[in-house]
Design brief:
The complex is a heterodimer of chains A (614) and B (222).
Chain A (H helix, E strand, L loop, with lengths): L3 H4 L28 E7 L3 H4 L3 H11 L4 E7 L3 H9 L18 E5 L6 H10 L15 E5 L15 E3 L6 H15 L3 H8 L5 E2 L4 E5 L5 E6 L7 E2 L27 E4 L1 E2 L10 H4 L4 E2 L2 H15 L3 E5 L9 H15 L2 E3 L10 H7 L7 E6 L3 H6 L6 H13 L4 E8 L6 H20 L10 E8 L16 H14 L5 E5 L2 H11 L6 H9 L13 H10 L4 H5 L14 E2 L4 H12 L29
Helix pairs in contact in A: 5-17, 6-7, 9-10, 10-11, 13-14, 14-15
Chain B lengths: L1 E9 L8 H14 L16 E3 L8 E11 L9 H5 L7 E7 L8 E12 L4 H11 L6 E6 L2 E6 L5 E5 L9 E8 L8 H12 L3 E12 L7
Parallel strand pairs in B: 3-10
Antiparallel strand pairs in B: 1-3, 1-4, 2-3, 5-9, 5-10, 6-7, 8-9
Classes of the chains: A alpha/beta (614), B alpha+beta (222).
């Protein structure tokens, strides 16, 4: 349903199909027949949001309950945003066309820090008071889930509730409590206090923060019976975990326009820079039968002819070969192609390759992350150069001639020599191609090197590390460029300015909400888009708010400092992270979860890899 | 093998889908249905699917059509609408299927219905201005061509322009017009709306529906 006023502007803007809804498999209900209306908001464009798996899972799950109607809301692009403001058109949900202020819950997914300003502009466009303390009555409960919730402090003033960990159960429990509170006609405050008693629920207004004179956090104090530590929720048995049978099929082309099947959650590797590798512990797999059944069902109900097996480091799935064999048997019959978006260099074999390329052949992407072996030991990316080269050889012999390599610069203890080794490694891949007897003749190899700036994240062993300054990053970026000699190597680097802002918010505290508000008032949004991002505008915002961004991004923190997220418990012991950090500085690696338990603490969730037979 | 012409409606939210996206939606529906379709024999094999007259973004239509080629000559083509409709969004609906009677080159014009209104002037004013507009001997519009912007006179090309009776100021002003369509000469209905907008000196909102596709002499394209 498109509101009448919106129809008048749709032909004045780019890609009006983003704003209309009306797709196959969208869920339309009678709003008078439901108790709870939930607006699922993704703080980026339609094409980005519709590609996200979490929204597909929760949209289906919520709508499977007759008393909930969950609808989708995306951030309007700047052209649409401007027209909506000029014409006083409120932000609406795609299914009903009703404005955000008609909803009981306004739920955001926090996928990346640079989407925070979009949250404020969406709330404001929807007519919702921005600050939690300005919202009254039992309506407009603004909630969030997703990875950035592991440090949601910069957003604490704007949200009523954060969900920690897997959302499948905790979201429904809170919605159920809301129904009950509505029946009992309780106050908003009473609802929030009762919600805080549910495991995995963080109500930021029930915590007071005290600061030291040096601006670090002194203490985090729970009040009104809220728990001192909030423990994340975990779906421990993935075979019983809810998974949708169909997806909304977009009418316009989106970023990832294909079926997705999640094969496991978590990662056994423990790469020290990787937040996902820690906050999703323990690793939990779906069985081969469950995966095959779900793949078939989704492809039948959506008509997609491509299915992507989603997880971190997919080749770590214990039965990857038998899974691919079984899927391949079905997929080749149905003309469905399989893709594994996340492959480790050492997990790549001829066996796997032959199952993937059967229908379409695209380039290969690997992430060695660092150029030198010493650096890879520091970050615990346990991949050796020989492994990368021999994997590339397998790929070249299999007919591939394009390889993408992802690296990071600005890692702890990194020297200019480590950085130059990125270029050297790429050169070795080029050489491996020409040394390969069975390569496709008459085709040149193309090696793309991408170097992004490292952002230290909470709940990783590098959470205390101060990010390299932008100047230092630039020097390193240029050093790689100067070291590359081959024209077969294509080099591009990620803008260090955005990584700096990301670092500020990733490990920020509540005082940053002032900066977010100020940025929103100055019209800053879509920071993750190059055409919108401006560091100088942000630096003006920080100085207007009397905030030093380097305090959050570039300062090395002490192990005994109270971190703004210390009251959140993702099952990883702080002592473990400290010991990992100390090992990193000594170039000592840690074995993966299947080789040897490192004792991170995630075993307390009583399942997954921690309880597998070794 | 036999070619089949499929007629469909494009309406509601789906009128904001571009032609390219529409092709993708229909391709996907055909793949999900159990129709046996002939695939092109090129390097990148795809289903054989052609459209007679792409529709501009934002316009509704009662008479869109595409051709497909079935591998089974004995197939009962009247089953096709029920086979495809479950896999299409509700704004795209297959209406009927028949064997192609005429080639695309015979297409000469299309009949459009316009429902217009404006926030700047009342509908009554709009109605009387429009009544004067259609009597103009010359309608100059700016048209984007391969060689840049050109000013052309569309008045001689527009036939059968007809305003419906107007009784109530709350209702949109409704008129219809026949515009050249096809590969030889084609006029986008929004060009006409722009000309009306300039003439009235007001911003006009137009809800446009393509009602019919015609051949030379006015016979319906089938």
């Amino acid at each position: 349903m498109i509101p009448k006023e919106v129809e008048k502007i749709l032909l004045k803007i780019q890609k009006p199909g983003r704003y209309t809804g009306g797709e196959l498999n969208e869920v339309i209900k009678d709003k008078r027949s439901v108790d709870v209306r939930f607006a699922f908001c993704f703080p980026d464009t339609y094409e980005v949001g519709m590609s996200h798996l979490g929204i597909k899972i929760l949209y289906s799950l919520f709508n499977s309950k007759p008393y909930i109607w969950c609808e989708r809301v995306f951030a309007p692009w700047i052209d649409m945003q401007k027209l909506m403001i000029d014409r006083n058109i409120p932000l609406y949900a795609l299914e009903s066309g009703d404005p955000l202020c008609d909803f009981d819950f306004i739920g955001f997914t926090l996928q990346y820090e640079l989407s925070y300003t979009n949250i404020l502009s969406m709330l404001s466009l929807g007519g919702i008071p921005l600050k939690s303390c300005d919202r009254k009555g039992l309506e407009h409960i603004v909630v969030a889930g997703g990875p950035c919730v592991c440090n949601p402090e910069p957003l604490a003033e704007f949200f009523d509730i954060f969900f920690l960990g897997d959302g499948e159960k905790v979201d429904l429990e809170v919605i159920e409590l809301y129904r009950q509170c509505k029946r009992e006609n309780t106050s908003r405050i009473e609802f929030l206090r009762r919600a805080a008693q549910i495991s995995g629920v963080y109500v930021p207004s029930l915590y007071d923060i005290e600061y030291n004179d040096d601006l670090t956090v002194k203490s985090i104090n729970a009040k009104y019976g809220a728990p001192k530590k909030i423990v994340k929720r975990v779906e421990i048995n993935m075979d019983d975990c809810y998974y949708p049978q169909s997806f909304v099929i977009p009418n316009i082309e989106i970023i990832h326009d294909r079926a997705v099947e999640e094969i496991f959650r978590g990662c056994i590797r423990g790469c020290r820079f990787c937040q996902a590798g820690y906050i999703y512990r323990p690793t939990r797999e779906k069985s081969v039968d469950t995966i095959c059944g779900q793949c078939r069902c989704i492809c039948e109900n959506t008509g997609y002819d491509e299915i992507s097996l989603s997880s971190l480091s997919s080749s770590d799935y214990t039965q990857i070969v038998s899974l691919l064999e079984k899927l391949h048997e079905w997929a080749s019959k149905e003309n469905v192609s399989l893709s594994l978006p996340s492959m480790r260099v050492d997990g790549f074999s001829d066996d796997i390759l032959s199952k993937l390329k059967s229908v379409r052949k695209s380039g290969l992407t690997f992430a060695p992350e660092a150029g030198s072996q010493r650096m890879r030991d520091v970050i615990n990316k346990n991949v050796r150069e020989e492994e990368l080269i021999s994997t590339c050889r397998v790929a070249f012999e299999g007919g591939y001639s394009t390889v993408k390599l992802y690296f990071m610069i600005g890692l702890p203890t990194e020297t200019m020599d480590d950085v130059a080794d990125i270029a050297h490694l790429a050169q070795k891949v080029v050489d491996a191609y020409y040394a390969c007897e069975n390569r496709t003749k008459g085709r040149a190899v193309k090696v793309t090197v991408s170097a992004s700036a490292f952002v230290p994240k909470p709940f990783t062993p590098f959470q205390w590390f101060g990010q390299d300054t932008i100047e230092c990053m630039h020097k390193k970026q240029w050093h790689i460029n100067d070291t590359i000699t081959s024209r077969k190597i294509n080099y591009n680097y990620h803008d260090a300015d955005t990584s700096f802002l990301e670092a500020v918010f990733a490990r920020g505290d509540r005082r940053l909400s002032k900066a977010l508000l100020c940025a929103f008032e100055r019209g800053i949004c879509f920071d993750s888009w190059d055409e919108c991002f401006s560091l100088s505008k942000w630096l003006d915002v920080f100085s207007a708010c009397d905030i030093d961004p380097a305090f959050y991004a570039n300062r090395h923190r002490n192990f005994d400092e109270v971190l703004p997220w210390d009251h959140l418990d993702y099952g990883i012991d702080k002592e473990f992270l400290i010991s990992e950090c100390q090992k990193a500085y000594k170039n000592i690696t840690t074995q993966n979860c299947r080789e040897k338990c490192a004792g991170c603490g995630a075993a307390k969730f009583k399942g997954g890899v921690c309880y597998e037979k070794r | 093998m036999k070619n089949v012409r499929v007629f469909f409606k494009k309406d509601f939210e789906c009128r904001y889908i571009s032609h390219l996206d529409l092709v993708r939606i229909i391709t996907r529906a055909i793949q999900r249905s159990e129709l046996n379709i002939w695939h092109t024999q090129g390097y990148n094999s795809r289903i054989y699917l052609t459209f007679s007259l792409p529709l501009s973004l934002g316009i509704r239509s009662d008479c869109e059509n595409f051709d497909i080629r079935l591998t089974d000559d004995a197939f009962d083509i009247s089953d096709i609408p029920d086979m495809l409709n479950p896999f299409l969004p509700h704004g795209v609906k297959i209406l009927s299927v028949s064997l192609p009677k005429y080639p695309y080159s015979q297409i000469d014009s299309a009949l459009y219905q316009f429902k217009i209104s404006s926030d700047d002037i009342s509908n009554l004013e709009l109605y009387s201005l429009l009544s004067r507009f259609i009597k103009k001997p010359e309608i100059l519009v700016e048209k984007k061509t391969k060689r840049g912007m050109r000013t052309i006179d569309i008045a001689p090309s527009i036939t059968e322009i007809k305003i419906e009776d107007f009784n109530d100021n709350d209702e949109d002003v409704v008129f219809s017009a026949n515009l050249p369509a096809g590969s030889a000469e084609n006029i986008n209905p929004f060009l006409l709306i722009n000309a009306i907008s300039d003439f009235c000196n007001a911003e006009i909102y137009a809800d446009i529906t393509r009602k019919n596709i015609m051949m030379q002499g006015g016979a319906k394209f089938e």
